[in-house]
Write a structure and sequence with these properties.
Length: 143
């Protein structure tokens, strides 16, 4: 079966990245199915359904972040699933830098994103090193 690569999951991710960088809310929302379900497994309270919430969320981001840039670092597809690694940057209203990195997993049906699992987090430039972090994970102190 030879599917048109311009209509598969990788094409949906490419359209999404393009819409993000052009701050084109109509093109962005057009990447999502009306019944889209968004999950953030490490932040379960952020779960929502519907492309209208996508519009609300990203309209706010595009309006408040005129220099928002989404770098698509890597992506792949497997059937209806698309995996993408991102770096999102901008300057915050107070002049401080904004940088988030992470991975999104999307299910694509009929050329639109039907569901997503987002693992995007702010970059922590300073903080605990690996030994301290592992020590905390292990329930004790860093070695």
């Amino acid at each position: 079966m030879n599917e048109d690569p311009s209509k598969g999951p990788n094409a949906a991710i490419a359209r999404l990245a393009r819409a993000m960088n052009y701050h084109d809310i109509e093109a962005f929302v057009g990447c999502f199915d009306a019944g889209y379900r968004s999950d953030q497994p490490t932040h379960p309270a952020r779960t929502f359904e519907g492309s209208e919430q996508v519009r609300k969320n990203w309209s706010s981001i595009f309006e408040s972040m005129p220099d928002f840039l989404a770098e698509l670092l890597s992506f792949a597809e497997d059937g209806e699933r698309a995996w993408a690694e991102w770096r999102w940057t901008r300057t915050q209203p107070d002049g401080s830098p904004f940088e988030w990195r992470g991975v999104t997993l999307f299910g694509v049906r009929d050329h639109r994103i039907a569901w997503g699992r987002l693992y995007m987090e702010p970059v922590e430039s300073a903080g605990a090193d690996i030994e301290e972090t592992v020590g905390r994970m292990a329930g004790g102190q860093a070695n």
